Each structure stands twice: as C-alpha cells, then as structure tokens.
Backbone:
C-alpha cells in the first residue's frame, strides 16, 4: 500500500477520520480496588490499563531519597495485544526504554517533595495494541495518578502524529504507523503547553518539524479536553454516591 492511499481524494483517512481528528477515547477511573489509583483507557482500538501504588515505603532502602519520593514505572504488553502472538519479557529493551521514559516524564510533574523517603510505583499494561501505545500509556498513567489523589503540578497528555504527503495526521492507528513514514509521539503539560516528552521515528525534513509540533500540541489539547470531562464526571459520581454532590 502506498502512502498516497492513506488519505483519500476526499481528504479522509482509512478509518474515516479527517487528518486533524483523534480517535474515540473512553476511560474508567478506579476500576481496581487493590491499587491506590487505577484507570482503563481505550484510545480507538488501543487499550491500556494503568495502576498506581503509593506513596508508600520504598522497597529498597538504598533507593530512598530524603527530600522527595522516588517514582518507578514498569510497562508490559500482553502476548495477545497484537495479531502476532509474542511473549515479551520484562527485560525487553524497548519496554525498558518506555518504562524509563514514563518514569522520567512523571518525575517532572508529580509533587514528589511532598512525600520524602517514599515511593510511587506506576504499572502500565497494554492489553490491545492498535497504534499510539506510548501516548495511550501516558494518558492512562495520568488518570491513574489523579485517581490515586497524588498531587501533580499540571495535567499531562500525549498524542502520536504521523506525516503523510506533507500533511500531519493526528493519533495514528497501527496501519498508519506501519506505513513507515515520519512519526512523532509528544507529551505536553497543558497549562504551559511545554513539551515534556518527544520521540521521533524515521526521518522528518526539518522544514516540517514546526508543523508537526503544532499538530502534536493540538492533539494533546484535544485529549486533555476529553479526559478533563471524564474526570469531572467521575468526581461528580463519587460525590453523588456519598450524598455530597452539589445540587
């Protein structure tokens, strides 16, 4: 399939979206009672589960920091997440790199100074993979941290952008990602709109970089607006269940 086939003459992508549209997002906060915070996020056909434990006593005394909490992350992908049944170990290099990236991203936004000598652990599992796994994992982790009640300096959202025939396409799926074109995954802190994380796959002409980053920011802000509504609805349902919802 050529790259030109990914956008029709009518300007529609293979799944019917316009280049500037993100996939449907659905999420559930607090589905697991055993974790301090948890979330299930579906971004199109990509499904991610995130769980947060802590703040709690650090498992290894040698890792303790006296002035702030340490943040850890472990990311995994189920063997049935893709059409290729592949068992991935915890030592998988790509998973370790992504785990470290998520850890560093959230170290910069979590108010770790409020929890000295403690540990906050984030566990992410990709249950179904259809493109944008890293972005969905970051978004699910944000929701799980909010569900855990862990203070953050800002709301963090992510989106993956492709580039086809000179046009940025938001929130790409697996088929679009497999086109081997330039691809950027970016995460931003929404108030300042500063980029907290960026990863690029394949080469992108420098003259198109600004266009891609503007599209990435736009996609992240779209995700933010959806997640903000979901969080508000979840918070209201909790207040209503406790009989303290505002009239």
Residues:
């Amino acid at each position: 399939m050529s790259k030109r086939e990914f956008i029709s003459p009518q300007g529609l992508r293979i799944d019917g979206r316009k280049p500037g549209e993100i996939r449907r997002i659905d999420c559930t906060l607090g589905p697991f009672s055993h974790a301090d915070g948890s979330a299930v996020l579906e971004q199109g056909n990509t499904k991610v589960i995130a769980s947060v434990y802590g703040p709690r006593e650090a498992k290894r005394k040698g890792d303790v920091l006296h002035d702030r909490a340490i943040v850890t992350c472990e990311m995994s992908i189920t063997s049935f997440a893709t059409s290729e049944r592949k068992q991935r170990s915890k030592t998988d290099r790509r998973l370790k790199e992504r785990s470290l990236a998520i850890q560093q991203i959230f170290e910069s936004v979590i108010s770790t100074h409020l929890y000295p000598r403690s540990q906050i652990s984030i566990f992410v599992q990709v249950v179904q993979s259809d493109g944008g796994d890293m972005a969905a994992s970051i978004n699910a982790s944000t929701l799980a941290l909010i569900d855990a009640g862990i203070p953050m300096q800002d709301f963090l959202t992510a989106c993956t952008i492709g580039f086809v025939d000179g046009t940025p396409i938001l929130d790409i799926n697996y088929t679009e990602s497999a086109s081997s074109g330039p691809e950027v995954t970016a995460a931003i802190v929404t108030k300042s709109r500063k980029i907290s994380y960026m990863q690029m796959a394949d080469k992108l002409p420098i003259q198109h970089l600004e266009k891609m980053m503007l599209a990435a920011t736009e996609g992240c802000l779209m995700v933010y607006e959806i997640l903000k509504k979901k969080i508000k609805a979840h918070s209201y349902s909790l207040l209503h269940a406790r009989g303290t919802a505002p009239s």
Remarks:
- Strands lie at 25-29, 37-43, 46-57, 70-77, 118-128, 156-164, 167-170, 183-189, 194-201.
